[in-house]
Predict the 3D structure of the following.
Amino acid sequence: MTTAPRTEPLYAQVRTALIERMASGSLRPGQVLPSEFALAEELNVSQGTVRKALDTLVADNLVQRRQGRGTFVAEHTQERALFHFFRMEGIGGMPAIPQTLTEEITQRAAPARIATRLGIDKSADVVLIRRTRTLLGKPATFEDIYVPHALLPIRATDGPLPNALYTHYQSAHGLSVARAEDRLSAVQAPAKVVKALPQAEGQAMLLATRVAFDLTDRIIETRESYILTTDTAYAVTLR
Amino acid sequence: MTTAPRTEPLYAQVRTALIERMASGSLRPGQVLPSEFALAEELNVSQGTVRKALDTLVADNLVQRRQGRGTFVAEHTQERALFHFFRMEGIGGMPAIPQTLTEEITQRAAPARIATRLGIDKSADVVLIRRTRTLLGKPATFEDIYVPHALLPIRATDGPLPNALYTHYQSAHGLSVARAEDRLSAVQAPAKVVKALPQAEGQAMLLATRVAFDLTDRIIETRESYILTTDTAYAVTLR
DNA sequence: AAGTGGTCTAGACCACGGA
DNA sequence: CCGTGGTCTAGACCACTTA
């Protein structure tokens, strides 16, 4: 009854082929792709078709083009990880760069709600990164970051982790965050947060619950970020 | 010293020409555009160039293509206004449809911070729409929506306004919201909110401060939405 | 059957970056 | 200078909608 599965357009096949190379590590972040003509010849399609495939990858922030130089696999540079995936802005709209204050790395069985959110077995191990950070110089965030130990076997001795965690996932474990889904709500600062961040006592906090996906749509992280928004705000543009 | 202003690519000129037609009202929401070939002939470019221009308009949600039928100026359908520009989701991720409880329309001189945000003169008149709404059946939001009276001369007798305000701007005043910028923070429910929404007393609330732009990047609205996020959350996807 | 957008090709020329 | 991506064209054929 369902319509027969149409053959995918060529440009979509080219896109998939390139994503597979990135996911498998044969094309690494920062590396230059073969030229459009080279890819076209190799994959037996026209240059225009390769171009269209690359257009979709550019739109998804998976590759970057540089005229005269080539097309490069997107890197989680400090800049991108901090401003693209962490959208806190000061009053004037200028980006607020976070600075880590405390960091604690532990390994444990996944709590039920975390296992569900990560889509892993309840008894599976996760690494918990608990940290506090400043925004605009003031202590302002408390984060519980959970990653499946099977995918990202981070150890306590790996710390201190870099300011932009996603660059670490990529450089140390070959996993790129391609997409993240945030759910934002407001809560009263809970006790565990106040313990680490005394200035949050009695304050309303922004709670950002995130699930992050890699190139192949595997869930590689979930985090619960509690943010004091006295001087900053989470910025979003809708089109 | 600055580099000479390059001539804009043809497809960008086509894009601009089409946006102008939409902004001037010669192409109205829901209306079908001339076919790609017709536009190509009319504007003296190739069909491929028109196509590229349309691609950018599709990417910005300004037009929609329907294979076999044509390309249409995007409408603020109920669906789009409610789910695209209002991203509250229930626990399971299902969209939460708001229902208006109370609505009050007044006209006044713009408060200083509102005038600044709207980019209008301090003595200029604004229309204030103050309303409370439910989410998932429970009273949950309080909004102060300010629009410049010069652009959107809404009167108290125009009420009750439709559930999706942006459809009203479009159908009654010919203004389309093309883009909105939200800044999210957490606050304790202020007195003015509690007065209208007693269940917010003592609660942390999500405050969404929005500035909305039309096709020509004019600011046509700013709003301050206070949202109780006990059952819902503001959802965002980052790429 | 006619008309629309969707895909794909082949080839031209331009603009930029690096050797 | 050469190779890269960026723009633009002309034309073919496919897929979908409507009449």
